[in-house]
Design a protein that fits this description.
CATH topology: Rossmann fold
Radius of gyration: 19 Å
Order of helices and strands: EHEHEEHEHEEHEEHEEHEHEHEHH
Number of domains: 1
Largest sheet: 8 strands, mixed
CATH class: Alpha Beta
Amino acid sequence: MNLFVFGLGFTARRFVERASERFARVAATVTDPSRAGAGLGDVALRAFGPETDDARIAADLAESDVLLVSAPPTRDGDTVLARYRAAIAGSRIGWIGYLSTIGIYGDQQGAWIDETTRPNPSSLRSHARIETETQWLALGAETGKPVQVFRLSGIYGPGRNPIVKLREGKSQRIIKPGQVFNRIHVDDIATTLLASLDRPRAGAIYNVTDDEPTPPQVVTEYAAALAGLPLPPEIDFETADLSPMARSFYGENKRVRNRLIREELGVNLAYPTFREGLAALVAKDTPA
């Protein structure tokens, strides 16, 4: 089988690393091929973005069996579908995964939700995600290609986690009473995608998240204690100096269930809570 990836970011890179033995050939898009290929072996990199479009992508898609879409929509919609809908529809691709976000549920006032919960997007970004999900699912329905949507919680993993932020002095301990978030280790995302490859279901939507929604300051405190690092001071949310994107993120409060990936795909999370995930990251960085 051959794999094509639109958007070789943090999550897609880990999937490629984990799944490399399954594919005879892997091609993926990046914004800058000269900077993005380190450590990925024989992955064929293609430039793709609002202002770039590698002429080889159409041929790559024609030769692919699996398509992973990690590139987010722009203000003008989904660039992938705008340029390559016909090429994908006419290809031999037999599995399509679209990486979305639990942000589409918006603020649920701390309630437990699952895939049956009606989306309630509160930002333009989340509205664009819902529209793009709908377009990909429509493509699947029209062509018979199994399209699966994966709604991801806050992603962390090697090089991108609370411990790194603490070490770099970029961590904030924002306090907003009652606020909780779910998270997901990048390896558990890869595990879920691999499980879906083995059990495709056309039109499936999965929440990919850990077991324990937790206040963000609790995670920061645990990370600091685990790594032996000083805690940043507490900052009240109302007076915190946050970007508009960060402030909108704190405006959403929900607890997300992951029952479907367990029961339908047979996924056993390696890191069911932030504790296992952060402990593994610290252990990896600690000399034997």
